[in-house]
Amino acid sequence: MRALKKLSAETIAFVLATVIFLVPFSFMLLTAVKDQAQAADLDFAWPGEWRIVENVIAVVEARDYVLLRAFVNSTILTVASVALIVIFAAMAAFVLQRRAGAIGKVANFLVLSGLIIPPAIVPTIWLLQTLGLFKTLPGLILVEVAFGLSYAVLLFRAFIAAIPRELDEAAQIDGCSGPALFFRVIFPLLRPVTITVILTTSVAVFNDFVNPLYFTPGDDNATVQVTLYNFQSQYSTQWNLLFTDIVLITIPPLLAFVFFNRKIVAGMTAGAIKG
Amino acid sequence: MTKQQTGPRMGPGAAPGQRHTRPAARHRSAYPYALYLPAAVVYLVIFLVPTVTAFYFALTRWTLFDSTFVGLDNFRDFLAEQNLRIGFANTIVYAVVTSGLKVVLGLLLGVLLTSRLRLRGFLRSVVFFPVLVSTVAVGITFSALLRPDTGLVNKALALAGIDGPDWLGDANTALLSVAAVDVWKGVGLATVIYIAGIMSIPRDYYQAVAVDGGTAWHRFRHVTLPLSWPATYSVIILSFIGGLRSFDLIWTMTRGGPGFTSDTIASIIYKQYQAGFFGLSTAGNVLLFIIVTAIVLPLNYVLGKRQVAV
């Protein structure tokens, strides 16, 4: 009797989760493979005609292959920002965790400010323009790094707190100090949290819509999220292509999810609670 | 100029020539401040300089190249705009509703997904996956699902005999519909934080409740709920800050409409930026900054205090 009750509870949980969380995704997929006329209904009907290949080709070719350029841009943006965030944040978190004092207090305050303060957008545009970096990919990369540092520092710092100081002392006795101590001894030990930071930050940067919208307007430096926004206005009736685009740009995070599912969840929780 | 070099030394401190004779150990700390440098440079230049200059530019009429000082006019105009009061209220409602629902649903899902379900792994993945999908994609999808006549939501309600409203087109429901989608997308993160919090509770407490003959409700009420407080704290702070700043989902789903009924401070800032009112837009930014700080700092203090008490 109890087993039966438990089974039915599980069935209910399963059905609810499927309906609430998986139906929207199946809707994306279904609409993406329909022809234009049927997709315009925006209903949940089974596709009358499967047009996977045609839709993909149409989306890729649209607006002079803007999607391909956007994929290249998004890849460069993601890889560069994440690499800089990981190295810069890990170094800063190391000193922040190990060395107290006035400077540490200021740094700590700045890290928390970075989490709380909403970025001042137009002054940032003005600054980038002054530096000659507005509407450029390097400018956007710097913006993503500046906005993403705080969260990464918190995750790294929580993890470094668990590394015993005796290790630092042993390394110092062996003549390893400063940057050498960090890069040779500490940084390799940070691997688990580094993976977490890489995954969470790359998903955040890849999916970012607001910053590219403000800081790299125009097709040349379009990122994949912004193509979505362009498609939406250009193909206001071609829902099938819009959803094909959605499916295509969801593939990279999906792959990250499939390969690193456990690590994302485990690492994120480790940082989220302590931070 | 020369006076400085020849004059008598004033006050304590090493003479200039003695600077380099400080103990070598102080120079070579194992944790040199130089490691702060790359992060500090990017952060100071790209984040802090604009934040500070915003306070000045908010007081000017500004074309990015020229700025004329106009005092508090921008703030007056910003506050006089009729949709701002709606935007301000909406921002607060949105942040409170989303973070409240994320706490409640995240805790429930967290408890469910740390229990001995056979489908635990599957359900965890399913709940977490929306976190990884871009907000814009989620917004577009739900705009379609929430359409009044063809949308799946209203069709499902029609099967149950309910006549669903025009979720995004009705001034009364637009903001809350967007908030619900925000919760759908973000509850996975809250759940994961709760899972971690619940799993870090020592098993002994649950055993103690079992020895005393407690039920599942007792376990939840007297052990899980109080001891997952750090998780609650993280979820509230993270989703509240996110809610106050939220822009992309609202912009994708309603553009602040219908009328101005789902405008938030962030969407008003964007509209004024688009219209070329840079000083005005920056004034909005400064207001958002003040609001976020004024709410989050006391909230952080109160929540942090309670955390110590438990």
From TrEMBL, chain A:
It comes from the Bacteria. GO terms for biological process: transmembrane transport. Keywords: Cell membrane, Membrane, Transmembrane, Transmembrane helix, Transport. Its main location: membrane. One of its GO terms (cellular component) is plasma membrane. Pfam families: BPD_transp_1 (PF00528). PROSITE patterns: ABC_TM1. The chain crosses the membrane at residues 12-33, 76-96, 108-128, 140-160, 181-206, 239-260. It is found in: Cell membrane. It is a multi-pass membrane protein. Residues 71-260 form the ABC transmembrane type-1 domain. Belongs to the binding-protein-dependent transport system permease family. This is Carbohydrate ABC transporter membrane protein 2 (CUT1 family). It comes from Nonomuraea polychroma.
UniProtKB/TrEMBL annotation, chain B:
It is found in: Cell membrane. Keywords: Cell membrane, Membrane, Transmembrane, Transmembrane helix, Transport. It is a multi-pass membrane protein. SUPFAM superfamilies: MetI-like. One of its GO terms (cellular component) is plasma membrane. Residues 1-23 are annotated as: Disordered. Belongs to the binding-protein-dependent transport system permease family. This is Carbohydrate ABC transporter membrane protein 1 (CUT1 family). It comes from Nonomuraea polychroma.
